[in-house]
Amino acid sequence: MWDLFEQIGEWIKQGLIEAVTERFVGLFDYVNQQVGEVAANVGTTPEAWNSGVFSMIRTLSESIVIPIAGMILTFVMTYELIQMIIEKNNMADFDTFNIYKWVFKTAVAVFILTHTFDIVMAVFDVGQYVVSQSAGIITGSLDVNAALADLGPQLEAMSVWGLMGLWLEINIVDLCMKIMSVAIFIITFGRMIEIYLTVSVAPIPFSTMANREWGTMGNNYLKSLFAVAFQGFLIMICVAIYSVLVQGIASADSVHGAIWITVGYTALLCWSLFKTGSLAKSIFNAS
């Protein structure tokens, strides 16, 4: 009779080990997939990321925003001409060279306005180059399961009640990892949506850059553009740090500790990714 109870207990234990192993194998797949796609997403220019959306944004900008920017440019340059005339004692001390200077500034402003998208794409090309170069230097595997591979001996040494607790724990962790994988997805894809929104109104701030007083708008916009472009580089650094941390997890002592340390590192990754936007803006002094 006692042997029968032992066999039943062993059968239950083996079933729990199989259940835990099955749940454990796919525990970090969601996060691994999202983290693995980060480099591909942040290293892509807005035009290459989704050509259909980019074409729509460009069409809307050229057909709706640029005419408004043209009116703003006309107002700004007319205002500058008036200021230039009256600041020299109502033309009593006026230098005719100022007219040529005003014509040159106006021509430059028109050139900038008509080549807005070329300038914007040049900024993101620089950002994409930095990300692609960093991807070749950054090393490390994002396979969390490899860091937690020493699972079998630990499960065999655990009791039935311990295995039941671990199974419940893994289910809770699985839910947490799915939530964090969605957070990573929102951060990376939300950045691209932010880029499209920023690019769509580019002609308006660009139309003010030739004027000393109004140019603050254009300068701040250009800083914001560089900030969101180089945010991808900061995201790559976060992923690189994460890959190094998860590979350093020691799972020999406790599978519980290894799992929760990995969850902590993933939560830290999500927090770091959220901070990259504000950090990039502070670096470029973009308001």
Mean pLDDT across every amino acid position = 76
Identify low-pLDDT runs: none
The proportion of residues in beta strands is: under 5%
Structural class: mainly alpha
Please estimate the helix content. over 70%
- Beginning-to-end CA distance, first to last residue: 77 Å
What is the radius of gyration?
29 Å
The total count of helices amounts to 12
Largest sheet: none
What is the total tally of β strands?
0
Give the topology string: H per helix, E per strand. Answer: HHHHHHHHHHHH
Number of domain units: 1
Query: What overall geometry do the principal axes of the alpha carbons give?
Result: rod-shaped
Give the key terms.
287 residues, mainly alpha
Topology (SSEs and partners):
Layout lengths: L1 H24 L3 H14 L3 H4 L1 H36 L10 H18 L1 H22 L6 H4 L4 H6 L2 H41 L2 H4 L8 H33 L7 H29 L4
Helix pairs in contact: 1-9, 2-9, 2-11, 4-5, 4-9, 6-11, 9-12, 11-12
